[in-house]
Amino acid sequence: METVARWNGVINGFVWGPVMLCFFVGTGIYMSILLGFPQFRYFKIVWKEVLFKKKAAAEKSDKSISSFAAMATAMAATVGTGNIAGVATALHLGGPGALIWMLLSALFGMCTKFSEVVLAVNFRQRDDHGDWRGGTMYILEHGAGQKWLAVLFALFTVLASFGIGSAVQANSAAEGLRIGFNIPSMYSGIALAILTGLVIIGGIKSLSTVTMYLVPFMAIFYIIGSIVVIAFNIGTVPVAIASAFKHAFSDPMALPGAIAGWSVKQAVSKGIARGVFSNEAGLGSAPMVHATANVDHPVRQGLYGIFEVFVDTFVICSMTALVVICTGTLTGRPDLTGAQLSLVAFENGIGVFGKYVLSVGLSLFAYTTILGWYWYAETAATYLFGLGFKPVMKVIWIALIVVGASGGELFGTSGNEFLATLWDLADTLNGLMAIPNIIGLLVLSKVVHKLVKDFDEKRRSGELQL
User: Fold this and answer.
1) Alpha carbons 399 and 58: distance in angstroms, whole number
2) 37-64: per-residue pLDDT in tens?
3) How far apart are CA 118 and CA 107, in angstroms?
4) For residue 9, is it within any domain?
5) Helix axes 98-122, 85-94, angle to 10 degrees
6) If residue 281 lies in a helix (H) or strand (E), which one and from where to where?
7) Domain, as residue range, for 186
8) For the segment 413-445, what is each residue's pLDDT rounded down to a tens digit?
9) Which of 164, 189, 241, 416 could share a disulfide with 406, CB 3.0–4.6 Å?
């Protein structure tokens, strides 16, 4: 295990290191220039499309789901513990300036996610059961003609999902319920397994129906709770924002020379890394569910990708960061990181009620991530092993939820060590997913440009209504 951990640390340092982070942001910048900055010029119609368009119901015989339901399912996976624990960790390691770099990476990440979704819808395929299947595997095989890269991506996805989508998320959900309501982790694990099983047994239709109602509720709940904390500390908000901008480009400790440069580097790297981890722009995960949407043009579904990144990072991640900074918890408790830092920040802001806001938010975010990531795992597994593997994947998924939630109670210290190792491996595999995904995106960038041009022409002619 020590050897595995050592090699995993080396690989993780690369996939979440400066080279790959430049690869992430650079791809977003390149696609933004190539496509004429769709995250800006489409921003008005994004809101009209997502929030005000009448949601047309799909025919019963059609295995697709609505565009909004597809986005809600994708957001179920992206809006997770990274928005709470991940943001707090970035601030702990990189200082308040990490928030600015998180937002800057998301600005270009909106275009990356948009492009991924457009390609996923364009190259999707029907499986033998009539379900739409799409995502990076299909983009690489049917678009770029690189089946070996498609297989590699699918393998990374399946392996990463066991940790990042199931066991570790179940552990976070159980931890949230234990913190807020003192519920034993074993009971939480069993309940989560039952609730998840009832949803995933119905496939994408059942998944999307649940997430379409649960995701907006949990997002609004957490945002309102955060706004209350910020309102109680409104006097410190201008200082918090100024601090974030100042320390994005300068050392918060005012240390000299190389040490100061290292501090700014930490703000940049941790902010970008946790931003990408949270909104998953460039990882190739969300397109797998966006490809199931009942939509008349690939670019129309891409608009939902822009909205997804905006809400995840600019709204929810920013809320967490402001709560941590403006309550003084970041500087007052330098010994804390992750979910514990966020928890203390909420308690400092509004007292014991803050604990309940954080615990419910953490549990809901983790549970919806389990649901969203199940579809990614199933899509990748069926691509590799065929549709007959679906029941096997369901059993593995549910078992991992129980083990993840109650590992400490079941196996003691060894259970916690197992989860920590699983998390580290999953984090690395999650980053490795980005390599074949971004290669496919860059190779097929001209296809995205052609589809965007076609969309603009049909929109101007009135053939497509927005």
Assistant:
1) 33
2) 999 999 999 999 988 876 554 444 456 7
3) 18
4) no
5) 140
6) none
7) 22-51+63-112+159-277+307-433
8) 555 676 677 777 878 888 899 999 999 999 999
9) 189
